[in-house]
Each structure stands twice: as structure tokens, then as C-alpha cells.
From TrEMBL:
Keyword line: Repeat
Lineage: superkingdom: Eukaryota
Keyword Amino-acid biosynthesis carried by entry: no
Domain Disease resistance R13L4/SHOC-2-like LRR, first and last residues per copy: 1-179
Protein name (record): Disease resistance R13L4/SHOC-2-like LRR domain-containing protein
SUPFAM superfamilies, alphabetized: L domain-like
Native source species: Nyssa sinensis
InterPro entries, sorted: LRR_dom_sf (IPR032675), LRR_R13L4/SHOC2-like (IPR055414)
């Protein structure tokens, strides 16, 4: 694989094949999109070393070998500066600090991260982030948006909420908001268009709720 130096898209590579294949990724310096699946904790450092060499990378997917496997990608001192899309699926002990240096990042998805602290506090400083999706990304009870944060956010996806995140009313540029598998009582409140939770999202043009029924996904407009 290391001889395919003109390759621009590589999706998906199973990291479980061994650290040697992750090491060879660093030779593919023209890659613009990379997808890694079945990543084990012990292979994280090798993957980080290779990703740092991919200066043209625009899109990156990293998926762990299972829901509880920790994605150890903390040690990246020089991430691809033009990265626009980042999908991380797997347990994170902490949010990788290099994410906060991705000033070109437009889309971010965190799934199964199980962070013990609210990630919005850090992510709100990303200047070009316009789409954020969170699924089991935070093990706490509340998410909080600060006034003045997420200046470019247009779409946000949240799941398993029991209450509207505090401060979401400050996202005045938000155009679309999507929820999934929310608390039934919260849904009823929003559908009645009453109460404090509804007042937080009443000025957002598009608000959707996605749910599973009889094995099929359905979507309603709130």
C-alpha cells in the first residue's frame, strides 16, 4: 500500500491488520480522505504518527474496534491543518487537544465518546464549525452553550436528551436542529409549543426529531 503515493481517498482500512499497515499510511502524502476502522488502543500512537504526515487530508474517520475500546489519539502535535471533516467513533478519555487547533474544521461527529465533561466548552471556539453531531458523547446530565460561542454553527444533532441544552437559545445563526431518541415527556412539551424548553428553540427555522418504531426510523418536524 505504501507505493500508492498518488492515492487521494482510502476508506476503510481495518487497523486490526496490524501496526505495519498504519505505519505505511504515512507514505500516502496526497491523501485527502482517510477512514480507519477497528482501531485498538495500542495502535493509536502509530496512527497519529502517520496522520501528521498527511498534510493534504480534508476528511478523517476513526472508528474503534468496539464501543468501549479507547481511541488513544491524544499525541498528535501537528494535525492536518486543512482538515474539514472529523468523525470519531469510540471511547475517549478526554477530548484530543489537537482538535481545538483545527480552524478549518466544518463538520464534527463524536459517537460513543463517553466524555466525563461537557465537550461544548472547548468546541465552541472552533471558528468554522457548522455541523456538530453528538451521540453518547457525554456521560453527564447537562450540555451548556455559552453566549458568543459557535459563531458559525448551522446544524447540531443531539441524542438521548432529557432537557434542552442550556444556552442553546444564544445560537442565533442556528438553521437546523436534529434530535433522536429523546425523553418522551420532553417531546410532548416541544409538540405543545409551551414551556422553557420550547422557548429555547422556538426561533430555530428547522427542528426535527428522529425515532425508531417497529424497526424503522421515522422523522417528525417539531
Amino acid at each position: 500500500m505504501g507505493c500508492l503515493t498518488s492515492l487521494q481517498k482510502l476508506c476503510f482500512v481495518e487497523a486490526i491488520q496490524g501496526s505495519d499497515i498504519l505505519r505505511k499510511l504515512g507514505r500516502l502524502t496526497q491523501l485527502r480522505r482517510l477512514g480507519i476502522t477497528k482501531l485498538r488502543r495500542e495502535d493509536g500512537m502509530e496512527l497519529c504518527s502517520s496522520i501528521q504526515k498527511l498534510g493534504d487530508l480534508r476528511s478523517l474517520d476513526i472508528i474503534s474496534i468496539n464501543d468501549d475500546e479507547i481511541i488513544d489519539i491524544q499525541c498528535m502535535s501537528a494535525p492536518p491543518r486543512y482538515l474539514r471533516r472529523l468523525w470519531l467513533q469510540g471511547c475517549l478519555e478526554t477530548l484530543p487537544p489537537w482538535i481545538l487547533s483545527l480552524h478549518s474544521l466544518v463538520k464534527l461527529r463524536l459517537r460513543w465518546s463517553q466524555l466525563g465533561y461537557d465537550p461544548l466548552e472547548s468546541l465552541q471556539a472552533l471558528p468554522n464549525l457548522s455541523e456538530l453531531q453528538l451521540r453518547q458523547a457525554y456521560s453527564g446530565d447537562e450540555l451548556h452553550f455559552n453566549a458568543g460561542g459557535f459563531k458559525g454553527l448551522r446544524i447540531i444533532g443531539c441524542e438521548l436528551l432529557e432537557a434542552m441544552p442550556s444556552g442553546i437559545e444564544f445560537l442565533t445563526k442556528l438553521k437546523s436542529l436534529a434530535f433522536a431518541d429523546m425523553d418522551n415527556e420532553l417531546i410532548r412539551k416541544l409538540q405543545r409549543k409551551q414551556g422553557n424548553d420550547y422557548s429555547k428553540i422556538m426561533n430555530i427555522p428547522e427542528v426535527y426529531y428522529t425515532y425508531s418504531e417497529c424497526g424503522r426510523w421515522k422523522q417528525i418536524c417539531l
